[in-house]
Amino acid sequence: MQSQVVVLQLDVRGVPQRWASLEAAVTYVALDAVAWVGGDSPLATLRGGRNVRTGRRSSIDVWPIVALRGAMPQVGIDAVPAVTRRRLLRRDRHTCAYCGGRFETDQLTCEHIVPVSRGGRTTWMNLVAACTACNGRKADRTPEEAGMRLRYLPYVPNRFESLLLDGRRIRADVNEWLAARLPKDSRLQ
Ligand SMILES: [Zn+2]
Q: Within its chain, how far is the Cα of 140 from the centroid?
């Protein structure tokens, strides 16, 4: 069974790297690779064996935010997250950029503001969520040509936001930690 991914893994400077499994986080603690931790309380406390000399029982606290020390492949704070459908629809809060309606995932498209046929690219700044009706009505035209105004503007999510966009069942304290670091124009605020 695939374990649930629950721990926000940061580099030592606090730049989010990925969602790690509880098992991976336990390993980091065991390897003494954790520089600092965050969150309101541990996610889990794992009991180990009894120390023969002291008679004390070892335990490992796993926190929901763990910053790792040392040189590992690092994702920089300025790295632009890859555009995916899931991230885009969540960035735009499942709201059509043209009619402003909220829709289910399967009723939304990733709409190129400047159509691909006109040189528009698949980037955060040229994509918005649009319902299938608006997408069909706009067709292969720019918003100006179609007479359809954008109700909100696209933006590039930062590292903190991309982790929020990817997360599932994010614990409240971790959500808060990430939300406090969102760009000013983020719609996830
Ligand atoms: Zn629409």
A: 31
**Residues lying with their CB under 5 A of ligand 1, a single-atom ion:** 96, 98-99, 131, 134
Dihedral-angle region of residue 80 (phi above 0 means left; psi in -120 to 50 means alpha; beta otherwise): beta
* 95: β partners: 102
Q: How far is the CA of 178 from the centre of ligand 1 (A)?
A: 30
Q: Residue 112 burial (CB < 10 Å; 0-12/13-18/19+)? A: buried
Q: In the chain, where are the structural domains located?
A: 5-78+161-179, 85-146
Grouping H, G, I as helix, E, B as strand and the rest as coil, residue 30 is helix
Question: What's the CA gap between 46 and 162, in Å, rounded?
Answer: 30
pLDDT tens for each residue of 110-152: 999 999 999 999 999 999 999 999 999 999 999 999 999 999 9
Query: How many angstroms is it from 119 CA to the middle of ligand 1?
Result: 23
3: CA distance to ligand 1 center in Å? 37
Q: Could you tell me the pTM of the whole model?
A: 0.81
Question: Is domain 85-146 given the CATH code 1.10.30.50 in the classification?
Answer: yes
Tell me how far the alpha carbon of residue 85 lies from the centroid of ligand 1, in angstroms. Answer: 17
Q: Which of 150, 155, 157, 146 is nearest to 130 (CA)?
A: 150
pLDDT in tens, 6-29: 899 999 999 999 999 999 999 999
Q: Which tokens sit at 90? A: 């969540």
